[in-house]
Amino acid sequence: MNVFGGGSALGPRLRDRVAHALRPGWARSVMIRRSAALLLVAVAVAIGVTGQRAKNDAPVLVAARDLLPGHTVTGTDLRELRIPVDLVPDGALRLTADGESHTVTGPVRAGEIVTESRLLSPRLPMELTGRADARLVPVRLADDTVASLLRAGDLVDVLNAQAQILAAGAIVALVPGAGPTTPTRATSNPPILLAMTETAAHRVAGAGLDVPLAVVLH
């Protein structure tokens, strides 16, 4: 009769109860399995979405810093950025070599996607005008203050001293020094570059040999 001496019998029972309490029941096991399965499904979906997004992205080059007109592009001026294919603009540069050593035609802000139309290249006249026979012509203006009013992409008519129109609807491709800097005497009155048809380009180039020309903005 060991009424209070059942320590040896109670010990195993207590351990069994604790072990039973810690051991998950059937319902709890099912819940854990379902939660684990849902977690695995969520991870798989996230990986799939990320992979699909990567497949739908394309590399483009953006300006690593603000670039001013007339600046010659170097490799450090550009950095690669991946964006959705649907957002890639026409003529976007994909390789650093496509932009290096080319001259910037207009202000390019840091982070802006660099396209062919922003750089001087053999394709620029056609890019600006949409004409395969387009040419670039340097034009020195009679009034150099007018050049400070021009920006790349402006439409102008080119006139001679007799007010004859030599080229109508020419597109400004490059205005050297266009930016926050102030022209000095040594750099004043630099020629601007205009894109126009081949016939008009020859006419303007010939007329500009003798005297500076004038432009009228549209």
What can be said about this structure in brief?
This protein is of the alpha+beta class. Helices cover 32% and strands 20% of the residues. It starts with 6 loop residues before the first helix and ends with a strand.
Structure notes:
The protein is of the alpha+beta class and 218 residues long. It folds into two domains: 57-118, Antifreeze-like/N-acetylneuraminic acid synthase C-terminal domain (Type Iii Antifreeze Protein Isoform Hplc 12, Alpha-Beta Complex); 124-217, no CATH class. It has six helices and seven strands, in the order H-H-E-E-H-H-E-H-E-E-E-H-E. A five-stranded antiparallel beta sheet has the order 3-6-5-4-7. The chain has a two-stranded antiparallel ribbon with strand order 1-2. Mean pLDDT is 82; it is low at 181-186.
Identify the overall geometry.
Answer: rod-shaped
Contiguous helical run count: 6
The secondary-structure class comes to: alpha+beta
**What Rg is obtained from the alpha carbons, in whole angstroms?**
36 Å
Please give the alpha-carbon distance between the first and last residues.
117 Å
Strand order of the largest sheet: 3-6-5-4-7
Could you give the order of the helices and strands? Answer: HHEEHHEHEEEHE
